[in-house]
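fwd from M.: "can u put these together and see what the complex looks like"

so here's what she sent:
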Amino acid sequence: DTGVSQNPRHKITKRGQNVTFRCDPISEHNRLYWYRQTLGQGPEFLTYFQNEAQLEKSRLLSDRFSAERPKGSFSTLEIQRTEQGDSAMYLCASSQLGGTNTEAFFGQGTRLTVV
Amino acid sequence: GQQVMQIPQYQHVQEGEDFTTYCNSSTTLSNIQWYKQRPGGHPVFLIQLVKSGEVKKQKRLTFQFGEAKKNSSLHITATQTTDVGTYFCAEAYGGATNKLIFGTGTLLAVQP
C-alpha cells in the first residue's frame, strides 16, 4: 500500500501522560500536514512541513505539542502532559509541491482518547 | 479569520433522490476542493475548482464554483447508499503552505 500511513490507529492515555504519533507520507511527497478533527467538525490545520522544515504552526498548537520531520520523510507529533481536551482524531496528510493540483492525501488518522 | 460555512449540516434522503450541499465564504476563495469522509474514515479528495463559474462533473456528482468565487455547490443525482458520508468543502490557503481550511461539512444519510 503506497498511501499515507499513521500509527497507532487508536491511543487511550491517562491525563498528564505524553503520547507520540507517527505519520509515513506517500514517499515522493514533500509536503506534510497535521490536522486535528473533533466529532462533527471539519479537520483543523495544526502544522505544515516542507521536506524537513516546519514552515507553519497554527495557534491551536500549544507549547505542549511538538512535531518533527527529521529527514523529510516520516513525521512525529508529540503531545506532552495530555489533557482531556486533546481527545480527537489526529490526521496526517501529504501532497506534492508544485503543479496546479493541490490534492491532499490523508492517512486513516490516530484517534486519541484522554481519560 | 476565514470561515467557510456549509449548509445543510445534515440531510436525510431516500435512495434515488437528489442531494445538494452548499459552501459559502465571506471572502473570495482562491480555489475550492471537495472531500468525502465516510463514517469512521478519513477525508478523500473528490475535486478541485479554480476558475470563476467553473462546473465539473464526475458521474452523478456535479461541482460548481460561483461567479464571485465566494460559494460552491456539490450536487448528487439519484443518491445511492454508497454516497453516505460527510462532504466537506475546503480552500487550499496560505500561498506556499497550501493548508486546507475546511468548511463545517454536510452529513448525508441515504435510506434504502
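replying to her w this: The longest strand of chain B covers residues 85-93.
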